[in-house]
Design a protein that fits this description.
SH3 type barrels; L,D-transpeptidase catalytic domain-like; single chain; 280 residues; 2 helices; 6% helix; 5-stranded antiparallel beta sheet; mainly beta; globular; Cell_Wall_Dynamics_Protein; LD_TPept_cat_dom
């Protein structure tokens, strides 16, 4: 069975256009400065729509659409000067290395790696640094309990979380005395829309927030998958007093996985950091 390495939080990104650094998480907030396209920013914190970043000693908020996307090479791969296999090599990107994707041109991703810009054939990049054929997904969409046990999925804690993006279902498992997995819960969820898809792969719970949001919405009981991706509640108004969007079983989020409030709270209250998450 292939071993899956844990992914570290990315500590930097690049702006993909001239970008406003704002004082608050709002498009109407005061603009501290304009960050030029292609600039490197230090990431301090991340939420679904907004990143807290530092640029030239100034800290504020940047809307996520204006920042590069984090991917990982799942094999040694050549960074090339143009989107063509015949173009001049720039360098070799080692297995498991993080790259920042600026744009996608057909089958090629325009990326920055180690402060060098070039192109990588997109097939060799993944959200978790693992190859797409890592598990046998035969039963992933029809019998999740069989999938996790036949693949002998490991988790450092007594729980395991899986999310089926196709059927928009999230599963919670608990390890029994024999070391196999028992299904505790199966919940409907809302996942990323096609333009901002939910990441796929193997991840590990890496912290939580009681809530986050902006001047237009708030979500509660947020458990981090990686970076700006979380399991969290359906949407509330900015004060957190009234539900404004309770839709589940749909693809309409900015990449996070939305759950009914009580289900998001269960994960937040019970699932420990380092718990394995599999999303596909």
């Amino acid at each position: 069975m292939k071993e899956y390495q844990r992914q570290e939080q990315s500590s930097y990104k690049y702006t993909i256009a001239n970008t406003n650094l704002r004082k608050e998480k709002s498009t109407s907030s005061y603009i501290i400065t304009v960050i030029p396209a292609g600039s490197k920013v230090q990431v301090n914190d991340a939420e679904e729509d907004w990143y807290e970043v530092t640029y030239n000693g100034q800290t504020g908020y940047v809307y996520s659409d204006y920042l590069s996307q984090t991917k990982y090479a799942w094999t040694d791969v050549t960074l090339r000067s143009f989107p063509s296999a015949e173009s001049k090599p720039v360098t070799v990107v080692p297995l498991k290395s993080m790259v920042q994707v600026l744009s996608v041109n057909g089958d090629w991703s325009n990326v920055i790696y180690d402060n060098q810009r070039g192109y990588i054939f997109s097939y060799f990049l993944s959200d978790d640094g693992n190859p797409p054929e890592g598990y046998d997904f035969k039963y992933f969409y029809t019998d999740m309990t069989r999938f996790v046990n036949e693949n002998q999925i490991k988790s450092p804690t007594i729980n395991l979380i899986t999310t089926n993006l196709e059927n928009k279902l999230t599963y919670i498992f608990e390890k029994n005395d024999s070391g196999t997995w028992d299904l505790l819960y199966k919940w409907s969820c809302t996942v990323g829309k096609p333009s901002t898809p939910t990441i796929k792969g193997t991840f590990y719970v890496s912290g939580r927030k009681p809530y986050f949001g902006s001047d237009t919405y708030r979500v509660k009981y947020a458990t981090r998958i990686r970076g700006s991706y979380y399991y969290h509640s359906i949407l509330f108004n900015s004060a957190g007093t009234e539900i404004i969007d309770d839709r589940l079983g749909m693809a309409l989020s900015h990449g996070c996985i939305r759950l009914d409030v009580k289900n998001a709270q269960w994960i937040y209250d019970n699932v420990l950091d380092k718990t394995t998450i599999i999303i596909n």
